Amino acid sequence: xxxxxxxxxxxxxxxxxxxxxxxxxxxxxxxxxxxxxxxxxxxxxxxxxxxxxxxxxxxxxxxxxxxxxxxxxxxxxxxxxxxxxxxxxxxxxxxxxxxxxxxxxxxxxxxxxxxxxxxxxxxxxxxxxxxxxxxxxxxxxxxxxxxxxxxxxxxxxxxxxxxxxxxxxxxxxxxxxxxxxxxxxxxxxxxxxxxxxxxxxxxxxxxxxxxxxxxxxxxxxxxxxxxxxxxxxxxxxxxxxxxxxxxxxxxxxxxxxxxxxxxxxxxxxxxxxxxxxxxxxxxxxxxxxxxxxxxxxxxxxxxxxxxxxxxxxxxxxxxxxxxxxxxxxxxxxxxxxxxxxxxxxxxxxxxxxxxxxxxxxxxxxxxxxxxxxxxxxxxxxxxxxxxxxxxxxxxxxxxxxxxxxxxxxxxxxxxxxxxxxxxxxxxxxxxxxxxxxxxxxxxxxxxxxxxxxxxxxxxxxxxxxxxxxxxxxxxxxxxxxxxxxxxxxxxxxxxxxxxxxxxxxxxxxxxxxxxxxxxxxxxxxxxxxxxxxxxxxxxxxxxxxxxxxxxxxxxxxxxxxxxxxxxxxxxxxxxxxxxxxxxxxxxxxxxxxxxxxxxxxxxxxxxxxxxxxxxxxxxxxxxxxxxxxxxxxxxxxxxxxxxxxxxxxxxxxxxxxxxxxxxxxxxxxxxxxxxxxxxxxxxxxxxxxxxxxxxxxxxxxxxxxxxxxxxxxxxxxxxxxxxxxxxxxxxxxxxxxxxxxxxxx
Length: 745
Fold this sequence. Notes:
Number of strands: 39
Strand order of the largest sheet: 27-24-23-22-31-30-29-28
Number of helices: 16
Radius of gyration: 27 Å
Structural class: alpha+beta
Strand content: 25-35%
Mean pLDDT: 96
């Protein structure tokens, strides 16, 4: 076996051994050409033919040298579900070479030849590319609003047959801060830094890696005259906000073959800039007030008995819960049937109804309908976990096999080119459920085919929402969607359509469209709630998550939360747990969750009682009880302020610069925010803090815990006993709002 994939796996941040790099090489530079080959190969070479637009062809043969094998960003076992890819990488050898200097106006064709130990040779098919070069192109941008583009800065990356990218520059003032850009973990202000916008599953350490599930090519520029912009594309965009050249923001974006790039500019306050963006992106709709109550979940709650036991423990400990999310409910094959359920396979892939299932009394889920009814009787909503894939490893059987065959037959899948040139179903290249089939949920017909299989869960079982996890699996610019467009344009839009499809299912059944997603892009604002994805239980992750919530809010995401104190690895300390729990009282979605631990002891559940038992800290349960009680009393305020946010575009969880764009001090604080119009929140983000520095902007502020008042425009060190974090009420806050804090003073 010898394999070359010119564009590699499509991993946006890693170059695979067997690909061409750059995929579109630049004239005057070189390209690396690589293959993976069986261990039996003793030598590999490439025949490279250069044909100039005018002149004779030239051929050169280049030997390849052995190199370490990398694939999809992995070089060894470890990481998130990477073992299958690592084993594959070890079974094949990597070979690479570098081309001579490439010339503009030339087409390059190449193929590889490998020699086996026994002297046999094996060749690949021919591949081709053209070297591209940057050229000025003032007509490449389609600008709306007052342009900030630097004259003469517009250029396109052109290979003589098609344009691949466009770029332009904008001035940045010394006092201007760049923020927004979707959910960003590393910082709020990206002035002086570079980043990009591509949906990516960054499993943990998002702040250190500077990658995100939920990017948007939209930015606020705050501190000068007040403006912002949106690169109005779903393709990948790169941003350099003064890192390469102080005072200059350079934007580079992939384009269609015509090389045209739409850019929208907005002027005014941060709210006015956000409103201009949302006019095109779409806005959130009000969700029911129960979404503001505590969400509870653990991956080891994988039986009906365990779910109800945990709900009983919430009641026993006086900690009210508003929603339970069950992740490990399904057969892990169809993701539509409860584990252990008995039913007859529908060979045509048709949806089931509840009456089609028999639930064994001794099974994991003896009666999901009774469980759901009991949860509802306790005023608890039920959400089920989903994944937008048809699992193909191990080889599917029963309903999973019938569904896969039906999906192919009904033509509802994302496809990819095959070596023959004919499209074939795309097989997931990510680490999670590798080689799965992927429905094209951006297509209305395919989305309906997919969601109808889940209709009985909503209409008959009574499910209230879905955790729409894992929207990041579309890798590769060459993927082919059902509307004829390719992955370079469509992959980022997949998670938007994913949440929208499930929201429409819920809406069609007369329910609120409550989805809970981690991935998204421009347009996600209109579709449900979000959480910040997978993280460890560390103080760094806590801080990164606060940045994520504030940047998401600045980009128009209203309903946002994170896994309180992290969900992965060993449990948090009691202090980290309580500080995170206190902060979560004042974010739109209050939710704890824990990773699967194979039911090993001790438990790693993030329930308050498990944290109390594991840490031996007697303060945990009474403090959590008090904090969740406070949250319950805040629900009317959150409902009211969410309605204001939806109506006015002023974020519910609002960075301080929204109200104080010309106050330089708001950029010199630890993460703080306004929750609605009346509460300023300053989470405690470090261990062992007896006080915490808080910046109070202009105005008059009342400490909700002590009743002390402070004039704004100053910094104070607020006392931070373990049962509370600094919260201040703005002047004019309703007395009844201040009253809700009385029970925890």
